[in-house]
Amino acid sequence: MWAFSDTLMTNILEKIIRRIKWEYRLICSWMFSFSLASVGCRPYFGKDLVVVGARHIHVGNNFVAHDRLRIEAIDSNGPERFNPEIRIGNNVIINYDCHIGAVNLVEIGNNVLIASRVYISDHDHGTTSFEDMRLPPVQRRVVSKGPVVIKDNVWIGEGAVILANVIIGENSIVAANAVVTRDVPPFSVVAGVPARIIKTVTPKE
Fold first, then answer.
1. Does 125 qualify as catalytic in the annotation?
2. What is the pTM for the complete model shown?
3. Which of 25, 27, 34, 199 has its CA 20 to 30 A from that of 80?
């Protein structure tokens, strides 16, 4: 007879439980995907997902979003009406505790990797005018300065913030905790607050 140690049995049980949890999340993801405007094959959504305006959200193939993603396509704010769209390409991975919000457009290309605690938004509560700033923030109009477009093969580091009216070029890297307020050229590395180019990668001769 085979003799199994307690440690071996514990390891086997843990693997079985992890597998069951994974399959359960896949089933939940499949069921949730019917509420989206469009979705590709094999989506995965982690637990504690918060979604606003699912009918304005498009997701490509092999999408992975880990726990506590908050994704909002906001089509109204009181009397104001918006026409939001969130478009996410193929093979995109979003890690834990991220927040994506749009009243205009947030577009994420293919093969993008987003670390944890990343904030991406195309809008603000009000402007920096005297009239707006004297109001409580919750009473200020929601405004968008322009869309956020993240091109293919971009890597966004932990805790980064991507603000409105920004294009992040192909194959670029946004460093951890950077705040991106202006366009990032392709093949660039940006860091800091506000984010600045610290390296541009060119092909070797």
1. yes
2. 0.85
3. 34
Point out the catalytic residue in the list 58, 66, 123, 125: 125
CA distance linking residue 101 with residue 105, whole number of Å: 9
For residue 99, pLDDT beyond 90: yes
What does the alpha-carbon distance between residue 84 and residue 76 come to, in Å, rounded to a whole number?
9
Q: Edge-to-edge, what's the strand order for the sheet holding 64-65? A: 44-45, 64-65, 93-94, 113-114, 155-156, 173-174, 188-191, 196-200
Give the model confidence (pLDDT) of 112-155 as tens digits.
999 999 999 999 988 888 988 899 988 888 889 999 999 999 99
Residue 200: both structure tokens together = 């541009």
Give strand ranges (E) for 60-187: 64-65, 70-73, 76-77, 80-81, 85-88, 93-94, 99-102, 105-108, 113-114, 119-121, 124-125, 142-143, 148-150, 155-156, 161-162, 166-168, 173-174, 179-180
Average pLDDT over residues 11-29: 76
Tokens 């993801």 appear where?
29
Surface-to-core class of residue 61, CB atoms within 10 Å of its CB (0-12 exposed, 13-18 middle, 19+ buried): middle
Q: What is the pLDDT of residue 77?
A: 79
